[in-house]
């Protein structure tokens, strides 16, 4: 089955850019998603990218996809304290199954 | 507003007791999912349903059961056979489980189950 890997923790200063990285193993993955989870809540869809794209920008969020290396990143510009949360990468692979990463906890230091 | 409602938010279970977690959606989605979230383990798929009256086991179905009698409802029962049920349970839905388009999953706010 597919593996989706992320680092566990990232700490940035308020106002800096955050970059959260993710790798996946299934080269046939069609869509890749980023979700945000705040404490005690469900997952909120932030953005997604189709595998034939290499970049997608949505306000402060930029997604970069390197399909050759199976590497996905989420850049948050001008990171705010409200961005502190766990960020999940997910890949939709074979048989349309969606596999989630373990989540990266983003800590924003004021 | 359309969305997914999970209830209750907190649930306590005694040893040997079955409990049922509710999940209702008014998004008119065909597919629904149940995930279990444990610290440091991400999300693991318990069961999913692509259409009414049909459901399939996910990666960790043992000790759980589901039903899908209505499109908008997908309750999860945690049975006494589940030896380590303490976790955060998340329900999700998508337009379809397969086919074209991005079809992202939309999540409820979760139910935290604890053992007394």
Would you kindly provide a written description of the structure presented here, covering whatever features stand out?
The complex is a heterodimer of chains A (110) and B (116). Helices cover 0% and strands 57% of the residues of chain A. Chain A has strands spanning 4-6, 9-13, 18-24, 31-37, 43-50, 55-58, 61-66, 71-76, 85-92, 98-100, 104-109. In chain A, strands 2, 4, 5, 9, 10 and 11 form a 6-stranded mixed sheet that branches. Chain A has a 5-stranded antiparallel sheet with strand order 1-3-8-7-6, with no helix packed on it. Chain B is mostly beta strands and 116 residues long. In chain B, strands 2, 4, 5, 6, 9, 10 and 11 form a 7-stranded mixed sheet that branches. Chains A and B meet through strand 4 and strand 5 of A and strand 10 of B.
Short structural summary:
With 110 residues, chain A is mostly beta strands. In chain A, 0% of the residues lie in helices and 57% in strands.
What brief labels describe this structure?
heterodimer, A: 110 residues, mainly beta, five-stranded antiparallel beta sheet, globular, B: 116 residues, seven-stranded mixed beta sheet, 0% helix
Biggest β-sheet of chain B: count, sense, barrel?
Answer: 7 strands, mixed
Give the topology string of chain A: H per helix, E per strand: EEEEEEEEEEE
SSE succession of chain B: EEEEEEEEEEE
Mean pLDDT of chain A: 94
Q: What percent of residues of chain B are in strands?
A: over 45%
Based on DSSP secondary structure assignment, what is the total number of beta strands of chain A? 11
- Greatest interface: A-B, 21 and 22 residues
How much is the average pLDDT of chain B? 92
Radius of gyration of chain B: 14 Å
The unreliable regions of chain B are none
Count, helices of chain A = 0
What is the share of helical residues of chain B?
under 10%
- Morphology call of chain A: globular
Secondary structural class of chain A: mainly beta
Termini gap of chain B: 35 Å
**β-strand amount of chain A:** over 45%
Q: Helical segment tally of chain B?
A: 0
| Uncertain regions spanning at least 5 consecutive residues of chain A | none
């Amino acid at each position: 089955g597919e593996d989706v890997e992320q680092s566990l923790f990232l700490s940035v200063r308020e106002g800096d850019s955050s970059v959260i990285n993710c790798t996946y193993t299934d080269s046939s993955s069609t869509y890749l998603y980023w979700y945000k989870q705040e404490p005690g809540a469900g997952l909120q869809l932030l953005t997604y990218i189709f595998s034939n794209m290499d970049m997608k920008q949505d306000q402060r969020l930029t997604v970069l996809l390197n399909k050759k290396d199976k590497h996905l990143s989420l850049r948050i510009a001008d990171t705010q304290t409200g961005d502190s949360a766990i960020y999940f990468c997910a890949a939709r692979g074979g048989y349309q199954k969606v596999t989630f990463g373990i989540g990266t906890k983003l800590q924003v230091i004021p | 507003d359309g969305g997914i409602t999970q209830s209750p938010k907190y649930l306590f279970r005694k040893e040997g007791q079955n409990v049922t977690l509710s999940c209702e959606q008014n998004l008119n989605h065909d597919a629904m999912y149940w995930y279990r979230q444990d610290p440091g383990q991400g999300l693991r798929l318990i069961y999913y349903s692509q259409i009414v009256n049909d459901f399939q086991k996910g990666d960790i179905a043992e000790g759980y059961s589901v039903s899908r009698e209505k499109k908008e409802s997908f309750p999860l029962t945690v049975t006494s056979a589940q030896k380590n049920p303490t976790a955060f349970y998340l329900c999700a839905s998508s337009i379809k489980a397969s086919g074209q388009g991005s079809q992202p999953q939309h999540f409820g706010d979760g139910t935290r189950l604890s053992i007394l």
